Each structure stands twice: as structure tokens, then as C-alpha cells.
Amino acid sequence: MSVETGIAKIETRNLDFYYGPVRALKNVSIVCPANRVTAIIGPSGCGKSTFIRTLNRMNDVIPGTRVEGTILLDGKDVRAPDVDVVELRRRVGMVFQKPNPFPKSIFDNIAYGLRINGMRDKRKLEEVVERSLRGAALWEEVKDRMDENAFALSGGQQQRLCIARALAVEPDVILFDEPCSAIDPIATAKVEDLIETLEKSYTVVIVTHNMQQAARVSDYTAFMMLGELVEFDVTEKIFTNPANKLTEDYITGRFG
Amino acid sequence: MKQATQKKIAQFIGFFLLRACLTIVLVVLLLFLYDIGRKGGGTISWEFLSQAPRKGMTQGGIFPAIFGTFLVTLITAILAVPLGMCSAIYLNEYARQGRLTRLIRLSIRNLSGVPSIVYGLFGVILFVNIMRFGTSVLSAGLTLGLMTLPWTITASEEALKTVPNSYREGALALGATKWQSIRTNVLPYAVPGMLTGTVLGLARAAGETAPILFTGAAFFLPYLPRSLGDQFMALPYHLYIMATQHHQIEQVRPLAYGTALVLIVLVLGMNMTAVVIRYRLRRKRR
């Protein structure tokens, strides 16, 4: 599969992943181009979440797992011994399936990533918190209630809060792991709009089981099944003229 | 229609049985408290609480025993609280989960079921003899501490388990180290539960007799312990003597009931403290 993608921000080569003896990813090679949105679609259990979690090495924390193959960020292997996983995760942010605000104030949620990286300057913190909340299109809704507990926000607001929290540490890449599966349609529309604006400054990879969502927000789409990459192409091509019969069956709703 | 009636009857019987069980427990408990309150209440006075026993313990108060119980519980806490919490954090957050951790966990659970007299004898060997602390408040406190440790560890681990994994992962995904994620995003939410379990364990330790019997508790002392190497009087042991070993058992019976009442109120007070701590910290979190 040779697809014209521009500069690769993230690239996996022959990626295999094992949960114990179970092989969850089989020989997956995908390019996620810089400043573009790449969507990963596929039926439940096809390994798309597993895939995205290998990119910032979140799977490292699950005991009994094993990675084989290569994962490159800006051409450098993220599993090289000299790579600091903490710094990798700061550069490759992640928004999870279920909004996971911390039980702290809205301000402290956004400031969390900065504080653990040693920033103490109150003025600078306030500045970054505001910029991040604006970036996540949440500022207007919460600017007068920064001291309120983040749990008081609605589900959709919580998810945008998590996006703002990820933006605050100024990552290069943001990974979205089914970010809209736990929020309502209106909130989903807001998050989708937001993702489209993010690609100017960030490289975005989004896992979704919602095909319309992939079609709406992404530039490139990868279709996965049973741990294998079936097809990777420009989103428009995948949804109008897929090369693979399986892809066609999936996007036309014949299974999945 | 008939089935609906049957279902209702089944539900009625079910709830009736549950209610009956609770009632039995409550009645027994209240009768017990009432009996001790009635027989011991008359003895309680400022003099009883603030003075030493006199005339072969047939008169006077139980202050040395109250003081000794506080002191020995303090030593217990100093050993069991930090050690227990830290072990639980390591076990739950850092240790690789596998056969070894399961075995360790199982052993800890088993240790919390070991009879207290076994701890007492172990304390004699380890603290009194090998470590040469003598029969002292220190040896007794350390023995009680050992006995409380499994409880503290188990309770603390349960508290850590109630913190959702998404807090840990969320912090890691922002570039936190594992320690940062635990310190700033797990412990603050686990500490209320950890403290509750710990205080309950300490309350249990405060009421124990067997572990201090050979390690440091004294039958009668004319003075308060002046150092950690001194022997001490303790409420549970004092009560045991007044109830079974005294040469004028009938005469000192009211004093025994008074002692029992003080001990129960003390333990109850500690348990209430645990409840209050949990309630306060939980509310702060919301």
C-alpha cells in the first residue's frame, strides 16, 4: 500500500502486540502524517485501542504484555533504551474513552500536567490554563467557575476538559481513544469540531467505532480487523472507493 | 396473578428474615451495653478516672491503666501505621502482580487471623528476649503493632483499590512519573479509607489482653511508666485481673464493671473517630 502522506509524524513497522499468549496486533504498519487527523476504525476487539495505546507506551503498565516491531516518532524508535517514557507521554498526549477528570478543581485539572513538570509560577499557570481551555473550546463555559470540582461538569464538558488538560503540556501528538463513545450527540459534535481545529498545531490519531465520525474528522483512515491492518488510505478514498472487499463490507454496514 | 402473589410472599419472607437477623444482633448488642452501663455506670466518677488504685485495688481509680493503654496504643500506632500504609502502597501500586504477591497477600490475610496469644508469645521471644527490651511498654506496643500490621495493610490496600485506574492512567498520560501519579492522584483519595481501617485496627489493639500479658503489662504498679523500658498497667489486663484473679472478687466487681465501661467507651470513641475522619475527608473530596 503506497499512499502519499507527506511527513510521517508517527510510523509503525511490523508491529505485533501480545497480551500473554494472545496476539492482539499482527504486523501492523501505519503512517500517521504530521498535522493531519488519522482515524483508526474497525469492529470491536480488532485491536484499534491496543494499537493507539502502544504509541505512547500506555500498554507498558499492563502486566504480561509484549511489543514487537518498530514504533517511530519523528523517525526515532520510542522503545529505544535512551527514550524516557515520561517525556514520551508528555509529547504524545492521550484522551481516553471515558472522560476521566481528576476529583480536583477545574483549574487544578488543567494545571496538573504543568505542576508535575515543575511549573510553580502562578501567573504562567493561569495563562496556560486559559489558553488550553480556549483551545478546547471550554473557556467561555467555565471561566467563572475555575474553583469548582471538575465532576460538576457535564459529560461532554468533562471530555473537553480532558482535551484541555492534554493540550496544557504542549504535546506534539494527541491520541484519542474513542473520545465520544460515552457522551451525547451534541457534545460529540463539539468534540469533533474541536478535533478538526487541532490538526493545525497537532498530529491527531483517533480511534473510533463510529464511521461517520471518521469520515467527518479525519484525513486518513486505517481499517483494522482481528488485529490486522486491512486497508490504509486517504479517508475519502476509503469511504467512496475502498480497495478491499472487507473494508467495503464494513463501511456499508454489512458487519461490525 | 397467582405467580405475582407468590413473588410477593417470597419477597416478604426474604425481607422478614433479613430484618429478624439484624434485630437479634442489635438486641444482643444493646443488652450487653446496657448491662455494663448499668453495673459500671455508678462507679464512674472523676476520682475513678483520675486516681490510682488503693488498698489492694479495692478502692481508688484506674488512671494508671487508662494512661498505660493510651501509651501502648501510641507505640502500636507509630509502628503499625506508617509501616502498614507503605507496605500496602508498595503491594498494590508497585509490586508485580503474580504468584508471589498473591502468596504474600494470602499470608497477610492469614496473619490477621492468628490468635492474639500467639502474637503475645512471639513478642516475648522477639522483643523481650532477643532484642532485650525486657517486659516493658515498648515490647508490648511493638507486639500489638505486629498484630495490627496485617489489618492496616489489608485495609489500606482495599482503600487503594477503590481509587479508579483512570486517575493513575490519566496522570501517566500527562507525563507524570509513577510516583507522581501515586502521590498526587491516588493517595489523596485513598487516605480517608486507609485511616479508617487503621484506626479500627488500633481500637482492636487497645482492647487486647493476650499480647501484652507477658510482654509488659503489670498487675499493679504504684507509679506511672517513666520510660519506654518500664512496665505499665492497661485497661484490658486490669479488667481481666479484677474479674478473675483478685482475692476479693465480689468486693471489686463494681470496679471491674466500671473498668469495662471505660474500655468500651474508649474503643467506641476510636471507632467513631474513624467514622468522622472518613465522613469529613469524603465530603471534602466532593
Short descriptors:
heterodimer, A: 256 residues, alpha/beta, Rossmann fold, 6-stranded mixed β-sheet, 5-stranded antiparallel β-sheet, 10 helices, 36% helix, 25% strand, globular, B: 286 residues, mainly alpha, MetI-like fold, 12 helices, 1% strand
Care to describe what's here?
The complex is a heterodimer of chains A (256) and B (286). Chain A has 256 residues and is α/β, with parallel strands linked by helices. Chain A has a domain of 171 residues: 3-Layer(aba) Sandwich (Rossmann fold). Helix content of chain A is 36%, strand content 25%. Chain A contains ten helices and eleven strands. In chain A, strand 8, helix 7 and strand 9 form a beta-alpha-beta unit. With 286 residues, chain B is an all-alpha fold. Helix content of chain B is 77%, strand content 1%. In chain B, strand 1 and strand 2 form a beta hairpin. Chain B is globular and about 70 Å long. The longest helix of chain B is centred in the N-terminal third of the chain and has 40 residues. Chains A and B meet through helix 2, helix 3 and helix 6 of A and helix 7 and helix 8 of B.
